[in-house]
Structure formats: structure tokens, C-alpha cells
């Protein structure tokens, strides 16, 4: 951890609090992209993530906007303390969330919270600004239908990047082109829903009061099934969660056959960020088309 950056962050927090605290810094897990710490002083506990402007040129501004977006939809998110840029370093300080046990009641509460988020709507699919999925830029240009939004803003940019990197070949491009033609008949027609956008098991916290705290968003107005689909990747959620969601806001029949199509997007993201180990999963899905 850069000492000058650490001192700057502590100074900015003290200005915010009108205090003169000295913090203990403890490295914690927080993903593969950012450096993350828990910092503590007296009764003040915060989560700090840092990176550089070479990764996120605007700092963590898009993440702050995403958290604010979710909060406006009555979704629980950590309190934002400060965000900024220091030299070529970027930082975001959030309130620390103590974790509770993931009980059956927690999963039911989480399903209710997500269904509530999904019931916030917009006239079009998209968002006023681009943001990030991992460290890759996520386009959010507005479209009137989800299949066009998904093709133009989600699949095509990542497929192009993967092809240019030599991670997929012409054969896969042909499969994707065939998929694009079939998408209009595959997705259920629904109004745009506010979505978290990157909802896997690492992007929520079970709080001590049995509620989910949403973190690391990649928000936009999209198809609500995309959150449910991504939740099944990398371990998945509890069965109680899916049963409760289905009772609150039922999905149209055939979701199990659609979820792999939605998950092409995060799988392509991982292919482009982490390499060929994700190729087989993508090939298995697109080879059906």
C-alpha cells in the first residue's frame, strides 16, 4: 500500500468526520481487480478499495453512481464515505458491513429485495452513462427492445475484443451471428427493469439484520432475468432464494434454457480478462446455434 496514498485517505476521512483519527489497515479479500482493506479507529470501521487511473480513468465515479442508482430504487447499499483521485491512484471508502449468517430467512429477504429492485422500470433499455463490468467498459446506449440492447451493448463488444485477442476464432463468430438472428424469439417481452448487472455470490453481503447489502454494481435498465441468470454462475444462490423470487415475481417458463444465453456476457468478460479457461463454457453454449 502506497504510504502517501494511505495518509491522504486518512486525512480526507478525518476532514469528513471532523476528527483526528489514526487508522489500523488490514488487507481483506475483495476481488481480483482492486486492492482492498478494512480500516479501523475507535468505533469507526470502513472498507477501502484502491486502484489506478490506468485501470479506471474516472476513478470509482461509475461505481458511486451505481450505488446511488440502487439506493434511489430503495435497495440497501453501503454508505459512501469518500471517493477520489490522488496522483495516479484512485480510492473509494465505504461503511464497513459486518456479516451475518445466511439463514433461510435471509435468502427469502434477499429474493424480496431483488424483486423490489426489478419492479422499478424505465421507458427504454439502457442507462444515461457507460459503466464497468469488472475492469471492462460496459456500453449502455438506449434501445427499445432488450434483444437489440443485448446484442449491441453486451455481446458484440466482447466478441470483437475476444476475436481481436485471438481468444475465439471465425467458427465462433459464425455461431454468434446465428444466435443474434434467433434472440428476438428467445427473450420474453417485459418492461425494462432496474438491475444490479453483476449479481454473483461475491457482490452482496449478508448483514447482521438478515438483509442483503448490494455491492459492486454494474447497473442499467435491462431484463430482470439477467440478474437471476448470473446468480447461478460461480456457485449460485440458495434454493430458498429462487423459490421465494418465483413466488413474488414469477419468471416465464423456459428460464433454465435462457439463462446460459444471458450468461454469455459475463463469461465473455471473464474470457477477455482472465483467458482461455472460460472458452469451453462459451463454446458449449454458442455451438447450439
TrEMBL record:
<comment type="similarity">
    <text>Belongs to the fructosamine kinase family.</text>
</comment>
<keyword id="KW-0808">Transferase</keyword>
<protein>
    <submittedName>
        <fullName>Fructosamine-3-kinase</fullName>
    </submittedName>
</protein>
<dbReference type="GO" id="GO:0016301">
    <property type="term" value="F:kinase activity"/>
</dbReference>
<dbReference type="Pfam" id="PF03881">
    <property type="entry name" value="Fructosamin_kin"/>
</dbReference>
<dbReference type="InterPro" id="IPR016477">
    <property type="entry name" value="Fructo-/Ketosamine-3-kinase"/>
</dbReference>
<dbReference type="InterPro" id="IPR011009">
    <property type="entry name" value="Kinase-like_dom_sf"/>
</dbReference>
<keyword id="KW-0418">Kinase</keyword>
